[in-house]
Amino acid sequence: MVKATDILDEQPILEVKDLQTSFFTEKFEVKAVDGVNFAVPKGKTLGIVGESGSGKSITSLSVLRLIQDPGKIKGGEILFKGENLLDKSEAQMRKIRGNEISMIFQEPMTSLNPVYTVGQQISEAYMIHQNMSKKEAMLRSTEMLELVGIPSPKQRVKQYPHELSGGMRQRVMIAMALACDPELLIADEPTTALDVTIQAQILELMKDLQDRLGMSIIMITHDLGVVAETCDYVAVMYMGKVVEYASVTDLFKNPKHPYTVGLLNSLPRHDVDLGDVELNVIKGSVPSPDNIPTGCRFAPRCPFASDICHEKLPHLEQSEEGNQIRCWIYTDEWDGDPEVNVNDQRST
Amino acid sequence: MFTFIVRRLLQTIPVLIGVTILTFGMMRLIPGDPAQIMAGESASPEQIELTRERLGLNDPLPVQYMDYVTGIVTGDLGTSVRNGRPVSGEIAPRLRPTIELAFYSTLLSVLIGVTAGVIAAVRRGKLSDSLIMLFALFGLSMPNFWLGLMLIQYFAIGFDVGGINTGWFLASGWGTWQQMVLPVITLGTAGAAIIARMTRSSMLEVIDQDYIRTARAKGVKERVVVYRHALKNALIPVVTVVGLQFGALLGGAVLTETVFAINGLGRLMVDSINARDFPIVQSGVLVFAFLFVLVNIIVDILYGFLNKRIDLN
Ligand SMILES: Nc1ncnc2c1ncn2[C@@H]1O[C@H](COP(=O)(O)OP(=O)(O)OP(=O)(O)O)[C@@H](O)[C@H]1O
Ligand code: SF4
Ligand SMILES: [Mg+2]
């Protein structure tokens, strides 16, 4: 069984410490990412899960320093192979983007440039990072299309994005992202926009390529089913903060944070037939950015919330297994029921 | 691509037929006797009768129209009322200045407009953006004859600044570059302003697209992101505007040629309207319409090159 403590044995490929990214709108500051911590061990897959708007995409864009105005990375550290990316110049960052760290996006339909062929777009990565000639780059692009399982790549490479289906386009995105053999691949909901069978194929492909190429992956999703299938570790995000970080086995067996339990309860189960029973969803909704709770961000929706939860923000605590948890229940300061067990809330 | 161009050319045939019907109708719609009009105001009744005969005005309308079209195809556009010379001979030498003026003005408005629009979009909300948009508004709201007069005042007549006279350019004629600079600026300014505004808004839309983020995530330089990835997409709607704008430009050419005393088609038209020389006016309109159609064919072909999403066949 993999334990989160394994991370400590080897330097992780990526370590994010107390990352803060805000959007400065006219009226107020939206703290989209508000003190995020996680690590991605070499060759492993970290899942980042959370409801819509929890800050998953902004976190991943921050890692590549692709936040656009009016957004700004306010603080923290992004250690890639031990070096802080926030100290790099824009030119140094460009050498990393698409080369050492690549990204694929949620929207395969709109993420490719409509006026260039698939081949031209993949080639660009080779020409930028490996100084290849146009011809050579095109040859490698065709090979890449073959690698990601696109049939008749020699024809496809000359086609424009609108001539391809969504699943094919996402394969092209993967080919483009993997062109320069990145050490880290960030996949921001790579399958959300695709239908279920294609979804499974794409995940399968990514896993297969990871085994072959030995890269690390950050898999962003709001689907815990995807996490169970593909990830080694998971960071659960809620309102810009990581509330729980654990190995996949620990998280599914013994979730600690009430929000994680809520997410697990909303996961459709295939092993038991629920019939027409509605899925348990977490009650309430995410508070708006101008009305952020002062204490634990989850307190208004948490079935265990006690006095301290409404007053003070819990710290991210390291558990004995090396997992991390941000919840008062697991501290000495807990003022609620001392016998509380969040797993009692789990639906069977 | 070749078949697309051929198709596009074939598609203009109905448009051209429409244009000839309009110019043909133009003569028939003017109140009064067409024969009288074509023969000129001072014509005697015999001359008018002769003209009626010559123009076949006693024939049924479809026959008259066919004669008219045959005339156009064979280059016979009738004769001028003022001097009795063939209209084609009057128009031909006037074409070159007008086409050159229109071409250079369009070139100027595209170059200036696109560059300014891109800069404004990239520097959205900054001072340079506001300044460019202010200039664009200025350029757009200034009547073109007034701009022409101002330019003549300051850069043809000129004034002294520190011993240097600013009368670098000439205020009349067409041929040398000193003669061409001011009219081209005069005629190109409004187009540049419209294209700048259009490019800016189109760029702002494109720059937020997912594929721009993809390009950045690939490690593409920001300059290349703007000019290779964004601009090529942003130009698609702009190109259409350039084609439509060309119509306004031809109208402006009439004024510009008058202000700068350029012996072009526009000026010929103005003179002919004043002299009620309808055969020339009619043919001038026809030539302008043909030019407009031609430019829009070129624009459509360009559009096809830029926009890969439209099916060329
Ligand atoms: N350009 C922006 N201006 C203002 N706020 C923004 C902007 N972009 C993102 N945000 C805020 O940042 C927060 C996090 O957004 P993010 O896209 O990271 O969510 P997410 O977890 O990826 O959600 P989803 O599952 O819907 O993709 C959102 O609540 C949003 O309000
Ligand atoms: S800190 Fe309190 S409110 Fe927050 S998750 Fe834990 S129990 Fe719930
Ligand atoms: Mg997202």
From TrEMBL, chain A:
- Would you kindly state one Gene Ontology biological process term found in this protein's UniProt entry? peptide transport
Query: Is Cell membrane tagged as a keyword?
Result: yes
GO molecular function, one example?
ATP hydrolysis activity
Q: Which InterPro entries match?
A: AAA+_ATPase, ABC_Ni/Peptide_Import, ABC_transporter-like_ATP-bd, ABC_transporter-like_CS, Oligopep_ABC_C, P-loop_NTPase
Location within or outside the cell = Cell membrane
- What domain of life? Bacteria
**Assigned GO CC terms:** plasma membrane
**What kind of membrane protein is this, topologically?**
Peripheral membrane protein
The UniProt keyword set, sorted, is:
ATP-binding, Cell membrane, Membrane, Nucleotide-binding, Transport
Q: Domain ABC transporter, which positions?
A: 14-264
Q: Please name the NCBIfam families in this protein's record.
A: oligo_HPY
Similarity comment: Belongs to the ABC transporter superfamily.
Q: What is this protein called?
A: Peptide/nickel transport system ATP-binding protein
From TrEMBL, chain B:
Give me the Gene Ontology terms describing cellular component. Answer: plasma membrane
Stretches assigned to the ABC transmembrane type-1 domain = 95-303
What the entry lists under Gene3D superfamilies is as follows: MetI-like (1.10.3720.10)
Q: Which InterPro entries match?
A: BPD_transp_1_N, MetI-like, MetI-like_sf
Transmembrane portions of the chain: 12-30, 101-122, 134-157, 177-196, 234-260, 280-306
Tell me where in or outside the cell this protein is found. Answer: Cell membrane
Q: Which GO terms describe its biological process?
A: transmembrane transport
Q: Does the keyword Transit peptide apply?
A: no
**Main subcellular location:** membrane
The protein's matches in Pfam families, at most eight in alphabetical order, are given as:
BPD_transp_1, BPD_transp_1_N
Q: Which UniProt keywords apply?
A: Cell membrane, Membrane, Transmembrane, Transmembrane helix, Transport
User: What kind of membrane protein is this, topologically?
Assistant: Multi-pass membrane protein
Family the entry assigns? Belongs to the binding-protein-dependent transport system permease family.
Name of the protein in its database record: Peptide/nickel transport system permease protein
Organism expressing this protein natively:
Pelagirhabdus alkalitolerans
